[in-house]
Amino acid sequence: MTQPLLKISNLEGGYGDIKILNGVNIEVPENSIVTIVGPNGAGKSTIMKAIFGIARVTAGTATIIRDGKEVNVFATKPYNLSKIGIGYVPQIENIFVGMTIDENLDVGYIPESGKSLEELKESMYVRYPDLVSRKKDRAGQLSGGQRQMLALARALMSAPDVLLLDEPSAGLAPALVDQLFDELVRINQSGVTILMVEQNARRALEISTYGYVLDMGRNRHEGPGAALAVDPEIVGIYFGKRNKG
Amino acid sequence: MKKSKALVLAAAIAASALLVSTVPANAAGVDIRVGTVQPMSGAGFASYGTGLANAAAFGVTSVQAAMTAAGVGGSCKMIAQEDSVSDAPSVVREAATKLAKSDKVNFIIGSLTSGASLEVGTVTAAASGVIGIASAASSPSLTTFKDNDTLFRTYPSDLLQAVALVKAVSKANGNSSWVTVGAINNSFGTGLATAFKRAWIKNGGHIGGTVLWNAGAASYDSEAAALVKTKHDAFVFVDYPDSFAKLAPALARTKKWDAKITFMTEAFNDDSAVKTVGASLMNGIRGTSAKTNGTDAAGWKTAFTKAYPKNPGTFVDGSGFDAAVLACLAGISAGGTSSKALAKGLRNVGGVNGGTAYTWDQLTAAVKDVAAGKPVTYNGVWGYTKFDRAGDPMGGAFEVWSIKDGVILHDSKQDVQF
Amino acid sequence: MAEFVQLLFNGLVEGSIFGIAALGISLVYSVLKLVNFAAGDFLTLGAFTTFFFATNSHLPFIVAVLLSMLLGVAISLILEFIIWRKLRKSGAGMLALFLVATGVAFVLRQSIALIFGSNSRKFDIDQIKTFEFLGAQIAQAQLAVLCCASVAITVIALFIKKSTIGKNMRAYSDNPSLASVSGINVDRVIIATWTISGAFGALAGIFQGTVQGQFTNGMGLDLLLSILAAVVLGTIGDAYGALIGGFVLGIVMELSTWDALLGGIPSTYKPVVAFAVLVIVLLFKPEGIFGVKARKI
Amino acid sequence: MNNLILEVNDVAVSFGGVRAVNGATLDVEVGSVTSVIGPNGAGKTTLFNLISGATKPDSGTILFEGLEIHNLLPHKIADRGIIRTFQGAKVIKRLSVLDNLMLGGQDNPGDSLVNFLNPKARKAYEVQCRERAMELLKQIGIERFADEYAGILSGGQRKLLDLARALMANPTLLLLDEPFAGVNPTLVEKLLEVLHALRSKHNLTFLLIEHDLETVMNISDRVIVMAEGRVIADGKPNSIYENQAVIDAYLGTRKASK
Amino acid sequence: MTALMQPGFWVFILTMSGIYGIFSLGLQIQYGVGGILNFGHVGMMALSSYTMAILIISHGINFWIAAAAGVAVAALGGAFLGLTTLRLRGDYFAIVSIAFSEIVRYVIYNSDGLTGGVQGSLAIPVIGENYPSYTDTWDSIMNRARDILTPIFGEIADREFVMAIVVWITLGILLLIVSRIERTSWARVLRATREDDEVPAALGKNVFRFRLQAVIIGSVIGGIAGIYWGLESSLLSPDDFLTLVTFYGWMILILGGATKVKGLPIAAIFFGFLYGGSRFFTFWPFSHLDASQRAYVRIMIIGIVLIILMMRRPQGIFGKRQEMVLE
């Protein structure tokens, strides 16, 4: 196996004095979709928050390969993570509601992406035609599904190597959930590696190259996404029995 | 402490003995403790307060030097100079309480505004052996205030000042002319404005209008417009140089204001005031101020500025000096430190009981006289020092000054007498 | 009519100064959640340093103005590095920040007094020169201030609207936590905010000194509450709102003295009128003139 | 006798030109479990805000137990017996978990300052209220956090606390806004048990917003589908899957084909 | 240094600290419990003290009735402030409340016929002749108390001493009452409103009523502080009621830890002694400065102490750190 694009080793941390992560290991190979699932309080979102300096890291490392070189993620300031190729879509409040759609995209752009702002913006509008007609509207007026698309587009404006998604389908109607996962596959096919945390475990694992099951802040199971989605043991414990059939 | 207490005690015993025998006092000498309360750090008043505090300190050192030169025992010391920030009564109260209770001063000089000075009076009335000398308070309230004869002032009451203004205006424009009164909206401004209006109407004159302005206002154009709109033969403005410096350009811009028919108060009988406002805007303005005979005020100013080069310098500085000089002289004269004795001392050196007249540059002789138990008349740098029963300076002469090309002219022909 | 024009002009001039000072306060509040009570003293500082550079050091007035603005920026940034940054890291709330700002105001105000003394100052600018317009006397210095202030605010408002750093500032004030994870250089945003606030604070002070002809070290404090009212009136965080809030306040304060309106209110009540307007506007538009009613989620 | 507990008639409201609810009409029967589903932005939460009084309708009427409530303030509506939970599970972070629950106590004499001088009545109620709160805490399994700040609870625990607090208020109609989103399936089942028990014991009526279709289908007597601020379908759970409008607006073809 | 050892001034400072403490307690119930940012609190103090003074001087009304009326007017002021503007967002309310107290001050400033205007309470119009000063009744009570206490405590027991005792007993009683109130379910609801309006409203609590009551109770306490303020000064001036005084109240509140009453009296004393005690900063290095420079430096020191304290302990001396960091 070649060296993974993003590698998180023995990560420990939490909020204040409360420890949530007790040694997590995640590897995200290039061009893959990796999903982290697990019950409430397992520490799924905390991993992403740790990378972005919102949660406290007490031990462990995270590295990303950038231009063939290994870069220490924790030594990079949160706002510089986009410069080393990491994009992030938080679960809630993931757009700037007081700004227009166009401005949301502008804000997501970084010169280090190597592409021009206009070019990137154009490609986003091609990808999400819904947004074109509402360019000048405040993002706060968008519906939930459109917001999620805008959030994705905003994160993609920095032309990331790897996109971190925190429960992207939370609160979306079933039809939109379908659309979203389709979109994630498309993004992945365009060459962006994805690491996501999902409650909708089965759907997420179905499109994933690889999956991790977390519990109590530790790795519990892992395996190829599709296999994990149907593993009866895991399904029974973590996804609830109703989801079996 | 013990030592000074013993000294005070000795002085008190000596004094009580003297009261009976009327033998010249102060062979042993008295240590006179003086403190000031002035707004030195707040917005607006700081330059006045600082000037008054400095002048008071200068007064104290001047008398001390005179005492040494005259070979008179004892001392006159500036113990502490407290800041009242913006002269809010509660802060003045705190500062005055400190002076009275911790520093145990005999005289508190201050504060600047009338309300704050009354607060000093409240403290001195309740304490024993402390006299307050207000250095810039003009409100008639000070006259009627129940201060147990512990509050004096070296600044004339508005009532006196108003009569002087009335006389000056009627001399120039006639008794029944129309006057528009403008004043800064504080106790100094409104107090004198009200007093003037009453006196003017009583004198048979008419008031065309009254406009007040706030000290820290963002602009003064509407006030200027309101002023020039009134029916008027003359203006009477009661203001400080700092705020008039903002009003005057606004008045000039209306093109309807004439400085030559404008009367002001002693606040502008001062080179620095003319400079603050601007000579061109002040051209032709007349005003009244208290007048003392035989005092070389300009010489004093030079000496003061030399001693305090950093002093901001305002029109009222001399009043602080006079208060301090009077305090020290009164202390020597009192032969005791009870409030009663000190008050009596103040009247004794201010000229109530007559005696030789001395000015600021004759302090050694004055000290000698006072130490010998004689009454003296200290003619102040700034104004009157003859205290009436309420502790107010009694009237004498007011001069009418005018400004021409930035120079203040003193034409004694226009002076008004009481 | 002439009187109306006169009062309107005076109100516009004052309003533009309120506006320019309000802009900095408004930005600092919306980006840093700090009610900067020390802002008034930056006005004073700007006026005094300009006086120092122009009158004492005999530099050209415009150079003095620029130097003063630079100094305002420098002090703002120094405070950011030694105080505000640390306070934010410790999780201090709005009230703690506010109290520290009053502490900073104390220190700043007293320092200015200590350095420059308590005397009043004035710029060497002709206050009297006017020309007539519709019967009103328009002072040239005031007209210049009105123009400069309006242009300066418009330029900055455009800058905030269009430039990358401006967009980043708005993004940060919109949602700081999202901004810091979406590639926005937070430090740069904060520096930009303080830069604008510091420069405009100084500029407002210089303008006020120019218009009034004379100023003391209490100038900023005297204006502060009116400026805060302008900030709130024009909706906190809105650059144009600051200007409009300032204009509304300035005009209402001046026009309230006009006899044609209810016989005119004595000018000593101007501050009361200003605050009353603020209260009344907020009763009908609780989020200020430019506030947007938000959808509850 | 009408057995409708809630009637919403042609209600509309807009924010800044956007019509969030656009002529919605629906009703809820006494003792039923009714679910509202629909795509994001369909106006479900706004509908809840309208019913609970947090938002005033621009037009239309809302009747509760036959009486108009749409002009009442939120606390008056709560007094009538409509209690809601919140989408994001709002807990008062700087109050203890127990205090959060006790906030739900109704007609608390201690809430009135006049009773400050009547400590007897206050304390008697307080003791009783505390007992009840502890009981509920045990039911939802977080009694060990009783004296901690609610701010330390995890997202799922907050949901439970929000629900328990609503129950403290003895509602007649309970509005639950996505009570199960983000709660892991095992816990959801436990919650459902609690709700079922309550329903049979107190004849409680439920109106809930939920995205998890399987849960909705399992527990609901009736499903109301909203889209673009209107009710587009209303009926038994099973009938929803066959409704073409619902498929287009909400389910998507893939889900429906299942 | 001997001046430092004289108790008289410190007793005065103690009295003022107590008055500030009472003043601050009014803010405590509003902010510490209800999260209401009232920056116009000094307005209530102005209302109560001026009402008392006017009723006594202009209408010859009994001191006790006048004082009670003063507190009642402060309560009405609080009710007015609350009813008109409490629906605003927190930070907007803060600014508007400043506007409220400034309006009160300017009206006092300009209503010569009622309040004496800029001349202060001394110019309050007197009907008839020889009406008393508003402190006369109080002074005679204080003097009587002093005459009783002097034999016990000696010379130190002057009027100020009695005043300090009375003020601190009042503060003690009020602290007791407020801490009791804070344990009621009323306070629990109010605490909830400080974070969120919707939750308590959805549970049947009239959020506005609770907030309004908090503002009124706070105003009553502020009004009591105003009565003492007036009695301590013996002269009222609009200059005494600057917004700065409200900020001093806030400083005490925050230093004391905002959410807990127990730190408040200590913070009040700390503030009072810092404010008054800094007048004694004449030793090295201050001895190099002249009196006016020292005046500037004194206020600067107060500012610096405030900054350092807030940076070291942003939650205040007795505050709970945890409350600040909850997400």
Automatic annotation (TrEMBL), chain A:
GO terms for biological process: L-amino acid transport. Residues 6-241 form the ABC transporter domain. Pfam families: ABC_tran. Keywords: Amino-acid transport, ATP-binding, Nucleotide-binding, Transport. CDD domains: ABC_TM1139_LivF_branched. Gene3D superfamilies: P-loop containing nucleotide triphosphate hydrolases. InterPro entries: AAA+_ATPase, ABC_transporter-like_ATP-bd, ABC_transporter-like_CS, BCAA_Transport_ATP-bd_LivF, P-loop_NTPase. The keyword DNA damage does not apply. Belongs to the ABC transporter superfamily. This is Unannotated protein. It comes from freshwater metagenome.
From TrEMBL, chain B:
Residues 32-356 form the Leucine-binding protein domain. Signal peptide: none annotated. The keyword Transit peptide does not apply. The keyword Acetylation does not apply. Keywords: Signal. This is Unannotated protein.
Automatic annotation (TrEMBL), chain D:
InterPro entries: AAA+_ATPase, ABC_AA/LPS_Transport, ABC_transporter-like_ATP-bd, ABC_transporter-like_CS, BCA_ABC_TP_C, P-loop_NTPase. GO terms for cellular component: plasma membrane. Keywords: ATP-binding, Nucleotide-binding, Transport. GO terms for molecular function: ATP binding; ATP hydrolysis activity. It holds the Pfam family ABC_tran. PROSITE patterns: ABC_TRANSPORTER_1, ABC_TRANSPORTER_2. Residues 6-253 form the ABC transporter domain. This is Unannotated protein. It comes from freshwater metagenome.
UniProtKB/TrEMBL annotation, chain E:
The keyword Transmembrane applies. One of its GO terms (molecular function) is branched-chain amino acid transmembrane transporter activity. This is Unannotated protein. The chain crosses the membrane at residues 6-27, 39-57, 63-83, 90-108, 161-181, 210-229, 241-259, 266-283, 295-311. It is found in: Cell membrane. It comes from freshwater metagenome. The lineage of its organism: unclassified sequences, metagenomes, ecological metagenomes. Its main location: membrane. InterPro entries: ABC_transp_permease (IPR001851), LivM-like (IPR043428). GO terms for cellular component: plasma membrane. Keywords: Cell membrane, Membrane, Transmembrane, Transmembrane helix. It is a multi-pass membrane protein.
